[in-house]
Write a structure and sequence with these properties.
The chain is mainly α and about 180 residues long. The chain has 6 helices and no strands. The termini are far apart.
Length: about 180
């Protein structure tokens, strides 16, 4: 692999620089992966929603589900603004997080307290994935001079960060407090 792009070599041939078209493809595929992720998360939430025992946790996750619907709408709006068909591209990262969650849910099937802790921690991992992904897409949109898309994506980042800071962090401490008090 040629490392001249990473060494600051001033004799760089312009044809070696990634093309705008390549960034465009990367951007669209990243949007499609996010759309896949949002749909996959919704499907999984629908399968476990009724198993959540804590009213506080259920309320937090139900409220976040409404935010999730806004994220899907914004992605659809970006597709429409760019005259791109709304479709998904498989997102291995979110599938891995879902598989990890399912593994933990199976382990704690008969232990609702730990099952709900696993749900909270997997929710945090997914939210952090979404922050990173929406943030990366916002930067790509800026690079492609699509400031309207960048703004919509930045709103999604902010909503996920607020969700973690205002809800998940607090409930994580609430659920883990009995364990930390025993130490």
């Amino acid at each position: 692999m040629d490392n001249s792009l990473h060494t600051g070599d001033a004799s760089l041939d312009p044809s070696d620089v990634p093309s705008r078209k390549g960034l465009e493809v990367f951007f669209v595929e990243s949007l499609q992966e996010l759309y896949f992720a949002e749909n996959a998360i919704a499907t999984e939430f629908d399968t476990i929603r009724d198993q959540i025992q804590s009213p506080h946790l259920k309320s937090i996750l139900e409220n976040h589900y409404q935010i999730h619907l806004k994220h899907k709408e914004r992605l659809e709006k970006i597709f429409a603004m760019r005259s791109i068909e709304v479709k998904t591209k498989k997102c291995d990262a979110i599938l891995a997080l879902i598989a990890e969650g399912q593994k933990h849910f199976d382990i704690f099937l008969n232990d609702i307290a730990n099952w709900e802790i696993a749900l909270i921690l997997i929710s945090q991992k997914m939210a952090h994935y979404k922050i990173a992904s929406y943030g990366a897409c916002a930067h790509l949109a800026i690079n492609l001079n699509d400031y309207r898309a960048a703004t919509l994506l930045a709103v999604d980042v902010q909503e996920e960060e607020d969700y973690i800071n205002n809800h998940l962090n607090g409930i994580t401490h609430e659920f883990l407090r009995p364990y930390s008090e025993k130490l």
